[in-house]
Amino acid sequence: MGYRVVVVGATGNVGREMLNILAEREFPADEIGAVATRRSIGVDIEYGDTGRMLRCKDIATFDFAGWDIALFAAGSAAAAEYAPKAAAAGCVVIDNSSLYRMDPDVPLIVPEVNPDAIDGYKKKMIIANPNCSTAQMVVALKPLHDAATIKRVVVSTYQSVSGAGKAGMDELFEQSRNIFVGDPAEPRLFTKQIAFNVIPHIDVFLDDGFTKEEWKMVVETKKILDPKIKVVATCVRVPVFVGHSEAINIEMENELSAEDAQNILREAPGIMLVDKREDGGYVTPIEAAGDGATYISRVREDPTVENGLVFWCVSDNLRKGAALNAVQIAELLGRRHLKKG
Question: pTM for the complete prediction?
Fold first, then answer.
């Protein structure tokens, strides 16, 4: 006996990826539902490579009663309106938006990092999926924190346009094409031209000069990993279609050599260490796209601080940063709380 699982926001980039990953990982579901806004009613979406098609239903009239798990990839507005309704109907919500992440009664989960926190899901029947840039970073930090206790993290991100949805990917494609043929490349979604450029601005600015994306990395890392860790981030949008990259500097309480860190990371769950000190001996977003791992490269000691390390971290933001992590949460939930059959 399997689960009844519905994907909300099934026609978007992350929703489609959730369906792909559910099928790819053979999630034990007796029934899979696809839900989206009214404009997507009747749209058929393929369930991974199974050849099976799912017809989209309207979220406004969808009855969550009898469904076990709802994977939400529909944004904060939809989560605010419909996640509590699903929860009230007895359906556990795993939400990809930022809405519930800092709610003290909602677990914020990365299964490789803080699986035990999922036990608090019954307070609201909602579990939050972290920000894409946070998810891959804490996977990398967790084993190093366990080994040497991280005190401080300085991270600069290089985030792909898919983090801004299909519209972001379309804008990069259209601007690149226009530049090649001599047409104007006016920004619409982004604040400046994204093609052949980098933009040090993701989400809105806060009063202290940081952006909300940078704030998310700080507070989410503290909630998921350790509230005592100090984090500062600079988040940058780059002209890459899929895959977020991060340059991470850490300062630890205890000494940890680069070689020891490599050995720890090589054995850590969810991580692939690719670290050859030669041309091409590292991973870039091109290689990470379509994969679920968090890739670590260029591990080295930081001579400017005591007990410091520096490394490069790359992951597919649509997978580990969103859809895969949500499915892994669902798998964890099933193993620990919703056992069937």
Answer: 0.95
34: three-class secondary structure by DSSP: strand
pLDDT digits (tens, 9 = 90+) for 262-280: 999 999 999 999 999 999 9
DSSP states along 88-142? HTTPEEEE-SSTTTT-TTS-B--TTT-GGGGGGGGGTTEEEPPPHHHHHHHHHHH
Both tokens of 49, joined, read 């490579």
Q: What is the domain class of 133-317 according to CATH?
A: alpha beta
What's the chain's average pLDDT?
A: 96
d(CA 317, CA 70): 20
**3-129+322-336 topology per CATH:** Rossmann fold (3.40.50)
Beta bridge partners of 251: 152, 308
Catalytic sites, residue numbers: 132, 244
Residue ranges of the domains in the chain?
3-129+322-336, 133-317
